[in-house]
Design goal:
alpha+beta; N-terminal domain of MutM-like DNA repair proteins; Helicase, Ruva Protein, domain 3; 2 domains; four-stranded antiparallel beta sheet; 8 helices; 10 strands; about 20% strand; globular
Length: about 280
């Protein structure tokens, strides 16, 4: 599933071709699509922004589009007449402006609403602090992680709760926990404040690094060690040697919305935490 860094890069890629331009055509397709996108024709695009895992397109007539890409969605930009890289039948939303076409493929959620209701939107209004926001409120994120409703949840589950902090997906979750040598299945209540703050800071650092314009086509969490050990520490490496200690990397699908957690039993067990 695209994470906060992917959405930030998507927004940055669309912005130069959409912002300030007037919509000449708009159409939607697929289940759950907004039937009212034709209202956007003639509106000027004011902003393209990413908040957590959501892409927002704002228009000068007070309307706003929200897309959530789920597991398989993506935004593409094309020149008029250019062949699309996915079948047109998979397009959930098509926006045409002078000189460019923006297409959202395979997204489970594409909705149009009045911008003035964003503050009470049932999803957006409940998001925790966005890790990619320059004004990220770490204290508020930690407060939300510490709420009683999350105290007995594993830290792996809590990090994916967008109501606590927005932008972390399964890759960054696994990688940040590995880097900080934290057992993914420890309860939030069992982590001290310093450890929790360090973990949030590491996750934010990974997202910021991978959202930047200098990043290549793949997500990298190993930093300067990439050429030696590869782009990721543990994600997707179940049954293979840990890049740090050689122990076999484990995996487990768990949580309310089952996600596969990858971890090193040695590095992220008691022995790892004491190093």
């Amino acid at each position: 599933m695209p994470e906060g860094d992917t959405l930030a890069r998507t927004a940055a890629g669309l912005r130069p071709f959409l912002v300030g331009r007037t919509v000449s055509a708009a159409r939607a397709g697929g289940p759950g699509s907004s039937p009212h996108v034709a209202r956007l024709v003639g509106a000027r695009i004011d902003a393209v922004e990413a908040i957590g895992k959501h892409l927002l397109i704002r228009f000068d007539d007070g309307l706003e589009l929200r897309s959530h890409l789920g597991m398989h969605g993506s935004w593409h930009r094309y020149r008029p007449g250019e062949r699309w890289r996915r079948p047109p039948a998979r397009a959930r939303l098509v926006l045409e402006v002078p000189g460019a076409i923006a297409v959202c493929f395979d997204a489970p959620t594409v909705e149009l609403f009045e911008r003035r209701v964003e503050a009470v939107h049932p999803v957006l209004s409940r998001l925790g602090p966005d890790l990619l926001d320059p004004a990220f409120d770490e204290a508020e994120a930690l407060r939300r992680l510490r709420l009683a409703v999350r105290a007995d949840r594993t830290i792996a589950e809590a990090l994916l709760d967008q109501r606590a902090l927005a932008g972390i997906g399964n890759v960054i979750k696994c990688e940040a926990l590995f880097i900080e040598r934290i057992d993914p299945f420890v309860r939030v209540a069992d982590l001290d404040d310093a450890t929790l703050a360090r973990l949030v800071g590491t996750a934010r650092g990974l997202l910021v690094a991978n959202a930047g314009p200098a990043r290549g086509p793949e997500r990298v969490t190993t930093g300067r060690d990439r050429r030696v050990v590869g782009p990721l520490w543990v994600y997707g490496r179940a049954g293979r040697d840990c890049r740090r200690c050689g122990t076999i990397v484990g995996s487990l699908r768990h949580g309310e919305l089952p996600r596969i957690t990858y971890w090193c039993p040695r590095c992220q067990g008691r022995e790892g935490r004491e190093r």
